[in-house]
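Consider this:
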Amino acid sequence: MFDTIKSMLSGKREPADIVAERAVDKKLAVAALMVHVIAADGTVEAEEEAKLRKILHDHYDLTADQANALAEEAKAADEQAVDLYTFTSVLKRDMDEDARILLVEDLWEMVYADGELHEFEDNVVWRVAELLGVNARHRMVLKQRVKGRISDG
């Protein structure tokens, strides 16, 4: 870290080089947002952990081992992040609108993984959807869709 700062101050490195080193991978950004959602109510239940790994495995083309490793890496990334923009900026840039909408649906899956809606989790999904450019109408339709699936299942 000190070397990075020193070389930046000496003018030997471009700011873009430093940003590239700190760039967050798209899958890590997705997983970190999911971790943030399930942790928003102050308690991470076993059902939420299981749902996180299942969604990473099923929706992001990862093996079970890769999903487990990514979930652990995402916990660390979420703990180190100072804001949601760290993750949403990557996703808004690298995902098309349909993919961002599907991500918001996945976040609702995380909210309902423990069988209940907590206001803090709801608020996180609202803020993430706004940062991703997913409008309120889509967000609410997705919320109701996931809630309906949970109620039916």
